[in-house]
Amino acid sequence: MRPDLITDVTSTIREIGARGEAIPLPEHRFDELERPELFGDALHMNQQGAVEFSAMLAREVARVLGR
Fold this sequence. Notes:
This protein is mainly alpha-helical. The chain has one domain. The protein has 2 helices and no strands. It is flat and about 35 Å long. The two termini are 26 Å apart.
């Protein structure tokens, strides 16, 4: 979800992370993907955006899990 659309700073994922039940990724890790050419509409990435996001996400998960 785009950061400018989030208004609740006490989100569920923050609560789950604080309890140690999940490992939240850095909040602004994917900000570089916030480019109009990567979106089909205000919320949904197009194919190019999905490919770039998937690659970044895979690298970030591997980093967090120590692989």
